[in-house]
Amino acid sequence: VYHPGYNITFMGLEKLHPFDSGKWGKVIRFLKEEQFITDENIVEAREASEEDLLVVHTKRYLCSLKWSFVVATITEIPLLVILPNCLVQQKVLRPLRTQTGGTIMAGKLAVERGWAINVGGGFHHCSGDKGGGFCAYADITLAIKFLFERVEGISRATIIDLDAHQGNGHERDFLGDTRVFIMDMYNHNIYPGDEYAKRAIKRKVELDWGTEDSEYLQKVELHSEGALNEVRPDIIVYNAGTDILDGDPLGGLSISPQGIVKRDEIVFRAAKQRGIPILMVTSGGYQKKTARIIADSILNLRQQGLIGAKATEREGLSQLVTHLTQSSGSAGSAHTAV
């Protein structure tokens, strides 16, 4: 799932944040070069509407995004303060809303097809009433709540969050909700250090500075298997941040590109072995080379038979893609129609 509108470009201001705000388009370009996808078999994401967002977000929070200084704080781009909010909405928030709509759509596609990847999304620091850490919309929470409310047979979800940072947004949203099992593996020395949100984590794996492949992959396998054995969900939401990469300025871990590819394979294999649908979002990753690594990982998943043509070329997909990309309405209405 992707839309060219995912990418954030505006007079170079995007370069003031370490996040590569064009990485999503680069992933798609790499996958096209490898002939894994074409424009015809990409599901085009639809921007989440205000009605969609209100499924999780408070009106007060959404209204606060009409103030540029609030968006500047959330995205950590101070110069946004001086821009008219209409420009901030168009150039910054609309791409994030489109990625959010993509996650909602991908959730339903994962249930129907066994897997789906939103090339964007993974805004795991945002909760229903508060944003932060470049996360303005709670796409993970939204995707799960749409599934619970609108898809028959989906009543339990497991979040496997392997971004380098704690996923405090979805944790705050699902604190006390027994339908959602959260596994979170993160560098405990860095942002956000949200002790209140940690109460929602059912399987917490805290990593130290400089954790390397061997220890990391052993823990990924042990705890992802353990989480899925403890509670069998109807859907897995996999937050596959690449900010665990060695040299990342914010992640503080030392995982190789090959380690990231293997990590994703471990999680997808665990899901496939159990016949559980999986939705992957790409989340954090703050180096220019992360786009290539994400593409390589997706290609490896195909090579390993964990995703690919057999899953996407079933009867009816072409009609589905046509419906999603040509019909009008919000991401939520697309979710229902699918």
Automatic annotation (TrEMBL):
<dbReference type="GO" id="GO:0140297">
    <property type="term" value="F:DNA-binding transcription factor binding"/>
</dbReference>
<dbReference type="GO" id="GO:0141221">
    <property type="term" value="F:histone deacetylase activity, hydrolytic mechanism"/>
</dbReference>
<protein>
    <recommendedName>
        <fullName>Histone deacetylase 11</fullName>
        <ecNumber>3.5.1.98</ecNumber>
    </recommendedName>
</protein>
<keyword id="KW-0678">Repressor</keyword>
<feature type="domain" description="Histone deacetylase">
    <location>
        <begin position="17"/>
        <end position="297"/>
    </location>
</feature>
<keyword id="KW-0156">Chromatin regulator</keyword>
<dbReference type="GO" id="GO:0040029">
    <property type="term" value="P:epigenetic regulation of gene expression"/>
</dbReference>
<dbReference type="InterPro" id="IPR000286">
    <property type="entry name" value="HDACs"/>
</dbReference>
<dbReference type="GO" id="GO:0000118">
    <property type="term" value="C:histone deacetylase complex"/>
</dbReference>
<comment type="subunit">
    <text>Interacts with HDAC6.</text>
</comment>
<keyword id="KW-0805">Transcription regulation</keyword>
<keyword id="KW-0539">Nucleus</keyword>
<dbReference type="InterPro" id="IPR023696">
    <property type="entry name" value="Ureohydrolase_dom_sf"/>
</dbReference>
<dbReference type="InterPro" id="IPR037138">
    <property type="entry name" value="His_deacetylse_dom_sf"/>
</dbReference>
<dbReference type="Pfam" id="PF00850">
    <property type="entry name" value="Hist_deacetyl"/>
</dbReference>
<dbReference type="InterPro" id="IPR044150">
    <property type="entry name" value="HDAC_classIV"/>
</dbReference>
<keyword id="KW-0378">Hydrolase</keyword>
<keyword id="KW-0804">Transcription</keyword>
<comment type="function">
    <text>Responsible for the deacetylation of lysine residues on the N-terminal part of the core histones (H2A, H2B, H3 and H4). Histone deacetylation gives a tag for epigenetic repression and plays an important role in transcriptional regulation, cell cycle progression and developmental events. Histone deacetylases act via the formation of large multiprotein complexes.</text>
</comment>
<dbReference type="InterPro" id="IPR023801">
    <property type="entry name" value="His_deacetylse_dom"/>
</dbReference>
<comment type="similarity">
    <text>Belongs to the histone deacetylase family.</text>
</comment>
